[in-house]
Amino acid sequence: MATSYRVGIVGCGSIAQRHTKAYQSVPGFHLAAATEPNTETSRAFQETFAIPKMYADPIEMLQKESLDVVSICTWHGLHAPQTLMAAEHGARAVLCEKPMAVSLDEADQMIAACQASGTKLAIGHQRRFYPGWTEARRLISEGAVGKPTMVTGYVVDGLLNTGSHVIDGMRYVLGDPQPEWVMGAVERKTNRWERDVPIEDCCLGLTNFAGGAQALLQVDLTAYSSADHFTVQGSEGLLMVAPDSLRLISPDNSNGETLPTLWDTHTQSAAGSVGFESYFHIAYTAQAQGLRAWLDGEAGYRSEGTQTRHSVEIMMALYQSVREGEVMRLPLEEGAYPLSAMVAENKLPLRYPEKYDIRDPQRRTWIHREAYDRMRADGLSHPEIMATLFNK
To answer: Which of 45, 161, 212, 302, by CA, is between 20 and 30 Å from 389?
Structure first.
């Protein structure tokens, strides 16, 4: 008889819905319980997904339910303590949303706790299951662009949020090389927060990897953004990477060649399960399929906690580079969140001190969303938009 894994969901927002739909699409998972402090959200989640038992407190759920898998779908600052909590209560696996943690110390605590309890720690970088990204990884390893030299990406909405996906994706397609050093630049003139964590208005980071490849990431410096697309430049070509397609430009074909992408074992299963609703949902379902295979004994997982720690280190090193005014050579010694430290040290003085949170509706109501979105569509960066809104 096939093993069935009991799943508990912590936090019932939009990401939890994606996790739940994925689990329900993969044979072998049983949604046993969920926890959500907001009564209305809890009731709606239970009705939508037919969850047998709802709790307001995650500790109570962990104490009363014998859970094999715990999906942590809460805000950034809760990821570490709730992962530790799940490991302490005997979960066989934790699937924690990105970013893994808001400091290197937190990431290390999560890894140590899960190793001590025998808990498999997976981080929600579901984009690693995009067929385009996976095929790009294979092609690059086989020399399609020669020796990789530079990966370039652009995102909005903060380094910890969408930036974490692209940093993880850049490493993934390059074959997960070891980062060697990071140099960063940060601006924070407005009191910007994201999910109750202080973040930058914009930043720029350059990472050097073992083997010589580099990654350049722009965050909120341009209206152009995609956490799904980036380019890989090599000594013999350029590869444009997308979730479900690739375009290779080479000396033999300066106009570029569109390459087919292949579904691997997990994405084939996921695609069949969701009927190609979209590649994004396919990626979430493939993530669950990969987790199921890992639990069943398959070696390794694409986004293990030990792998994702590198992305956390890169982000923290970017901030610490600004704090110290120099290139940060890894391993990084600073264990805390350097941006918070810079705020406390007044190294990032505010021009506009009014606090706002881009993901908390109660703290962003004063922002004219239509005006913001219109200016974004017109090509303004976040700092330019906020300066305009504050000065009105």
So the answer is: 161
Domains of the chain plus CATH, in order, are 5-126+267-308 (3.40.50.720)
Task: Confirm if 330 and 182 have CB atoms less than 8 A apart.
Answer: yes
Residues 120 and 93 sit within 8 Å (Cβ to Cβ): yes
Instruction: Report how far residue 226's alpha carbon sits from residue 353's, in angstroms, rounded to the nearest whole number.
Output: 29
**DSSP letter assigned to residue 126:** G
At residue 114's C-alpha, the angle toward residues 159 and 297, to 5°, is 105
Distances (CA, A) of 18 to 11, 12, 14, 97: 12, 10, 7, 11
Strands 253-259, 148-155: parallel, antiparallel or unpaired by DSSP?
unpaired
Read off the pTM.
0.93
- Residue 244 CA to residue 263 CA, distance in Å, equals 9
**DSSP single-letter state for residue 228:** S
Q: Which helix (H) or strand (E) holds 256?
A: strand 253-259
Is 85:70 a contact under the CB 8 Å cutoff?
no
Nearest to 172 by CA among 311, 76, 22, 331: 311
**pLDDT mean values, one per 10 residues, the chain (392 residues):** 87 97 96 98 98 98 98 98 99 99 99 99 97 95 98 96 97 99 98 95 98 98 88 97 91 78 54 54 93 95 98 99 99 99 98 87 59 82 83 66
Distance of CA 209 to the CA centre of its chain: 20
Alpha helices in the chain (DSSP H): 14-25, 39-49, 58-64, 79-88, 104-117, 131-141, 164-173, 265-274, 279-295, 305-324, 338-344, 369-377, 382-390
Report which of 289, 302, 295 is spatially closest to residue 91, judged by C-alpha positions. 295
According to DSSP, the β-strands at 53-55 and 29-35 are parallel
Alpha-helix runs per DSSP H in 55-103? 58-64, 79-88
Task: Determine the distance from the C-alpha atom of residue 57 to the mean position of all C-alpha atoms in its chain, rounded to a whole number.
Answer: 25
169 alpha-carbon distance from chain centroid = 9
Tokens encoding 283: 């990626």
